[in-house]
Amino acid sequence: MDGAGSDRLALQGVKAVFLDRDGVINENRPDHVKDWSEFRFLPGSTEAIALLSRAGILVFVISNQAVVNRGIVSRETVDAINSRMIKEIGLMGGRVDAVAYCPHLPEERCNCRKPEPGLLLGIAHQYGLELKNAVVIGDAMSDIVAAQSVGCQAILVMTGRGRDQLMMAKTAGKNSFAVASDLRAAVDLLLTGTVKRSRA
Length: 200
Known about the structure:
6 helices, Rossmann fold, two-stranded antiparallel ribbon, single chain, alpha/beta, globular, disordered N terminus
């Protein structure tokens, strides 16, 4: 695990984990994932989700997919990619309980595009979750901000955009989130009950 500090941040009573998709579960492409042929699982990501499922933790995927409203990819294609992802994760022993995504452009100023917490709040309402018992794992500060705005713990992974985002957070003096090298490392540390706290 990568971390900027040696403090410990306890993760107790975790009932649910929210995962960003691109850059956390699969490779983040600069030209976006436009069909299943471009979807590549990151090493260890399916195994990490299987570990969460075996531990009885609910797993949700939340992502910004402005490619829909940009007209690059249809909603039907995004749904098909997500369905295939869920199937492949299932074959590895994991379970994704739900996927939610925001199709909006930043200028549409919706309440579901991260860093807004709409996706988190919607799933929490649907599943009767206390968000203080949830963890968000993402590769961008938008994931971290969304998590913190509703009382979730947050882990920034160094895959995808993570390293650049961590440097931006340090420059801005933002902290109070954990850092892990990838999803498998984040899950391993989550299941042990402690992770290192990032210091900006």
